[in-house]
Amino acid sequence: MGEVAGQRWLPRFCSAPTLFAVMVVAELVVLVLALAPHAPEREDGLRQLGIASVFVQWLALLNAVVLCSLRDVLERWPARVGFTIAWLLAIATTALGSAAVHSIDQALGLGLSAPGSVLRFAARNAAICALIAAALLRYLYVRELWQERVRAAAKAQVDALQARIRPHFLFNSMNTIASLIRTRPAEAERTVEDLSDLFRAALGAREAMGTLGEELDLVGHYLRIEGLRLGDRLEVAMDVATLPRGLPLPPLLLQPLVENAVYHGVQRLPAGGLVEVSGRCGAGFVEIVVRNPCPDDAAQPRNAHALASVRARIEYHFGARGALVVEPARGSFTVTVRLPVEERP
Q1: pTM, rounded to two decimals
Q2: Any bridge partners for residue 274, and if so which?
């Protein structure tokens, strides 16, 4: 097992996916022991299976609680040492739990545990736990390491996208500002402010979350700048009044989609076209739709990298609850961003 510097190598045993995996493995152990050839056949086999399942699930949950509580302590050690300590903790917890249950059962005379001494009962269960825990901890370790690498790759794409500013957009914007200074100084000043807002968002803190309202304002800044450059060729229709402006959102999530709509759609058409940005709210989600015209030869979009980066950012921040849906068609291109909304009492 390699060392994992600066990464969370031990899974969160209190999380639902990990708890589910632990409980499934525990139940499989019960079934394997019940179906083993040497297992004695009893008339009350189903009853014994139920009792064994309850006991093993209790032990599994007890181990999960112990490892969850000590996660921060274990991860202070190198991965190899922490893994060994976690494995020994699982064995010790199983042995002590088994001994406690066996002693209580014998004292009350319930006959729920297997006959024999408490030491033998605890040692047998600890031995089984030693084998299962080693395999399960190794699997969870590899899964957590893989997920950490996926998160790191997604974060790298986030940083690359946030640092990405089209040089020709900057040059075109500066040329537009220069041409407006003498004839329309007020518009030139507003364009400088719009451009500074865009750069502030692109060069801002990588980890800071913005809001949907701030992102829509950035989209407006960008479209105003491009409107000065393209003139009547660019039409804009925004229907976003019903969207929750306070919804937490990573910066520059929507602006690249609108930028693609201009560069790969409207700009390539001699007559220009309409960029539509609309939104709607549903039960626990919001959808933002960006639609633009495009040449007929754009069925295979040139903006696949940007779309993949935005999709990675959505997965990084929202997981399976968020989605990016791309719908290319002849003469048009539609992108839908679906984001979760946390219900508040």
Answers
A1: 0.55
A2: 235
